[in-house]
Specification:
By secondary structure, the protein is mostly helical. The protein is about 65% helix and about 0% strand.
């Protein structure tokens, strides 16, 4: 378990120290955030704030993982490396989007087709590779069965698995992206979910089927490939986001941009797939799901009736336009996310106990 502590501490330290250095670099180059004119008026004062801050916690997570392996003398695992690949790959797509917005002065960044293509390439590579690299017990990083607390139901086959994995990756990466509209909102919510996955990974280590012979109730074991490494990555991401939040909270000195939001969403989907908690992510990442649904409802209602359900979507801006301060929205939405994680972890435990 020392690996989990080391990873969290290393990444926390690196983002606390490294983020202000990145802020200075981005400010010197003039890489400031573009603010939409049709958004809440209070956001116009944020124009020019350095963006692409996701670089800080992506690099911190990757370096913290490597340092942890060196310090503890342990080896990397395929599930861990695949989640890190998804984190970095989606981050590259987001970086290209941010770079075009800032340097090319094109407010929408990458064209929709190019952005989707990048996400699909990374997602398909992850899904295909996750079906490979079986261990001595025949366990691959991902399972071809759907999962909630653990696998259930029939095998869906490799083609449907790739489609399902792509849906999860795209949904979560764009869900975090939609949530990243207020200072610290997406970062703080991500800290909670990664904290939840750190706990899940630790619990799965203690109850892994690989240790079934030493368990008092072997029938209740959880079949997950390398859960310790997944907990290490979740801890590194939690620490990295905590350190970044110090500089990202209101008033934000830096924004994560699409570089960070797409990366975080990809990492969440990767952790859910490799830890066999795919459907549980709907609850653990409840705030991201809620905000995404608000956009779907807004667009659908307007196309069908010509009327809007919310004053503005995503949902956080609706409450801003109702007169809530930005900090009030963020804190209350954090409370919602915290309750989602608590309930999700409760269901995870109950599902294991009843299983």
């Amino acid at each position: 378990m020392n690996q989990i502590l080391f990873a969290g501490a290393f990444s926390l330290f690196m983002t606390l120290i490294g983020t202000p250095l990145l802020i200075k670099l981005l400010a010197r180059k003039g890489y400031g955030q573009f603010i939409r004119d049709d958004g809440p008026r209070g956001h116009h004062g944020k124009r020019g704030t350095p963006t692409m801050g996701g670089i800080a916690f992506i690099l911190a997570t990757l370096i913290a993982y490597a340092l942890t392996k060196v310090v503890t003398g342990s080896g990397a695992s395929y599930p861990g490396l695949l989640v890190l690949f998804l984190l970095a790959g989606m981050g590259v797509v987001g970086f290209l989007d941010d770079y075009i917005k800032i340097v090319k002065r094109r407010s929408l960044g990458l064209r929709a087709g190019a952005k989707m293509s990048g996400q699909l390439i990374v997602g398909i590579l992850f899904a295909v590779l996750a079906m490979q690299f079986a261990d001595s017990r025949g366990q691959t990083p991902a399972s071809l069965r759907l999962s909630f607390v653990t696998d259930f139901g029939w095998t869906i086959g490799p083609v449907l698995f790739v489609v399902w994995a792509l849906f999860m990756i795209l949904a979560m990466s764009n869900g975090v992206n939609l949530t990243d509209g207020l200072d610290g909102l997406a970062t703080g919510a991500s800290v909670m979910v990664f904290g939840g996955y750190t706990f899940i990974g630790m619990f799965q280590v203690e109850n892994s089927c690989a240790n079934a012979m030493t368990m008092s109730n072997p029938a209740s074991c959880m079949e997950v490939r390398d859960p310790l490494d997944l907990a290490v990555i979740a801890s590194a991401l939690m620490g990295a986001c905590f350190g970044f939040l110090w500089w990202n909270t209101s008033p934000a000195k830096i924004f994560m941009g699409d570089t960070g939001s797409l990366a975080l969403g990809g990492a969440l989907a990767g952790l859910a797939i490799c830890s066999r908690t795919e459907l549980l992510l709907i609850l653990l990442g409840g705030l991201f799901v809620l905000i995404t649904l608000s956009v779907v409802i807004q667009v659908g209602a307007f196309k069908l009736t010509g009327k809007r359900v919310f004053r503005m979507a995503p949902l956080q801006h609706h409450f801003e336009l109702k007169g809530w301060s930005e900090v009030l929205v963020v804190v209350r939405f954090w409370a919602i996310q915290g309750m989602c994680v608590i309930v999700g972890l409760g269901l995870f435990y109950v599902g294991w106990a009843l299983g």
